Amino acid sequence: xxxxxxxxxxxxxxxxxxxxxxxxxxxxxxxxxxxxxxxxxxxxxxxxxxxxxxxxxxxxxxxxxxxxxxxxxxxxxxxxxxxxxxxxxxxxxxxxxxxxxxxxxxxxxxxxxxxxxxxxxxxxxxxxxxxxxxxxxxxxxxxxxxxxxxxxxxxxxxxxxxxxxxxxxxxxxxxxxxxxxxxxxxxxxxxxxxxxxxxxxxxxxxxxxxxxxxxxxxxxxxxxxxxxxxxxxxxxxxxxxxxxxxxxxxxxx
Amino acid sequence: xxxxxxxxxxxxxxxxxxxxxxxxxxxxxxxxxxxxxxxxxxxxxxxxxxxxxxxxxxxxxxxxxxxxxxxxxxxxxxxxxxxxxxxxxxxxxxxxxxxxxxxxxxxxxxxxxxxxxxxxxxxxxxxxxxxxxxxxxxxxxxxxxxxxxxxxxxxxxxxxxxxxxxxxxxxxxxxxxxxxxxxxxxxxxxxxxxxxxxxxxxxxxxxxxxxxxxxxxxxxxxxxxxxxxxxxxxxxxxxxxxxxxxxxxxxxxxxxxxxxxxxxxxxxxxxxxxxxxxxxxxxxxxxxxxxxxxxxxxxxxxxxxxxxxxxxxxxxxxxxxxxxxxxxxxxxxxxxxxxxxxxxxxxxxxxxxxxxxxxxxxxxxx
Lengths: 253, 366
Hints:
The complex is a heterodimer.
Chain A: H1 42-54, H2 57-69, H3 74-94, H4 100-124, E1 130-136, H5 144-155, E2 158-162, H6 169-179, E3 183-187, H7 195-206, E4 214-218, H8 224-230, E5 234-235, H9 239-252
Parallel strand pairs in A: 1-2, 1-3, 3-4, 4-5
Helix pairs in contact in A: 1-2, 1-3, 1-4, 2-4, 3-4, 4-5, 5-9, 6-7
Chain B: H1 6-14, H2 30-35, H3 40-43, H4 51-65, E1 70-71, E2 87-89, E3 99-102, H5 111-116, H6 126-142, E4 148-152, H7 155-164, H8 166-175, H9 177-201, E5 207-211, H10 220-226, H11 228-242, E6 246-250, H12 260-268, E7 274-276, H13 283-292, E8 298-302, H14 304-309, H15 312-326, E9 332-336, H16 346-359
Parallel strand pairs in B: 1-4, 4-5, 5-6, 6-7, 8-9
Antiparallel strand pairs in B: 2-3
Helix pairs in contact in B: 4-6, 6-9, 7-8, 7-9, 8-9, 9-11, 13-15, 15-16
């Protein structure tokens, strides 16, 4: 989380957010603000955080720009602004305060800011939290869940390669070969496409790549028992817990 | 007890009376295509469908499995997409389903033109007209004693399937709720027109509404704003025009304290006569919290993937226990958790149905 960890540590920032309703999201009021000595860039980080929580992509971009202009490092902006906000989004989702629409809106706003930051992160040589390759399996065109996981992982500092939908086992294998990710994530919304997950794991074994990547699976019909049966390394029921799982698997990889 | 016809059996269920046997609704859509040995391109294209084949999927599965509540035709979920400027994905492989490759309203700027093409006349849109023609055929052959439900999706689900896609509509609900409302109203109007046409074509039983957003994807507050009134509009219209009750199939975990009160609102405000929840609700929970607490008939689901993966003894045991714990006083219909999976093995399907019949005959043994 970098040098800003003490300011935006997950769980220390108790945002007070009313249950979402149709319309504009309410801006959270972090408690710890009163305890932080104001310094250069703090207003900008708070602005980024609030804009992500509010799902305001334009404001995220402008405040990221302002933060860069006042001299904040890209790492600080990523950790203290974007990642901090997305961690809170994940927490609110798991507590039943945020739902899919709110997550999507915040995640898209975060992505808008991340797009501005990426060249600066590269220039600073900031390593990612890990690399993940994600896709929806062959025969399945559903992607809302997979897209949410992509965005939440990016929001957690992962580098993500999104293969899209209808991804064959061979394409997954090639992507693992090309990108050497820590984690391979597969999503399926149809029970009839779930067998492709097992096929992909078999294909990884045949290619001699199975022990080089951790495999996580998810999607509405997928269960923990299914994941175990096909030899996956983990299962997550939603996008928020997928981030925790990916972090856990990455530390094991 | 005197043996009832299938129509009488389903009427007893939705009317809250004890039938002779627990009715079964397998919610067959794409599975019927594969049951007949076809692939999806054999039955539908981007612009037309084969009405005879659509009818055959119902008649053949009814003969093979002897379930109680039928639909009038094979249907996919994406009627209206192509005439409004979108595109379908019609997969070749067995076990897959039709989906939308491109939705008509990709940006808000597309809406003006798309809106100008609404409403869609179900009898004139070839793929929808095929469903209606199939329903006529099915009704002529089995409608005298078999209940044929009318099926579609209410407002938000209708809008996401026909116009906008799930991700974009979900974001509209937060960022541009007035625009979302316009789309949802258009979707609901198509739902009413299509349901009406199904009854005109020969549907003769309950109206089934399937709601994807539910509390699975959106908050209870959003569900109350964006789902409840549209379900009410449909249920009231169908009752008024055809005297038929509505069964609401809705996704999401209603065990959560903030979500549970919505179930009562669907009954009391939206005038839904029965609830069809998903696999997140155990049979016992449904019995206690829906059938007994709300006094409403309910479907008791077996999770679709379990129908695919479980052994035959596992399927039979679950079905037996589910019936024994819920159906003693009636007001229960056995279903899968959603549309029956397209790849469910024949023996698994057969075992489930036969178990429903075996253990569901009244009086139900404890």
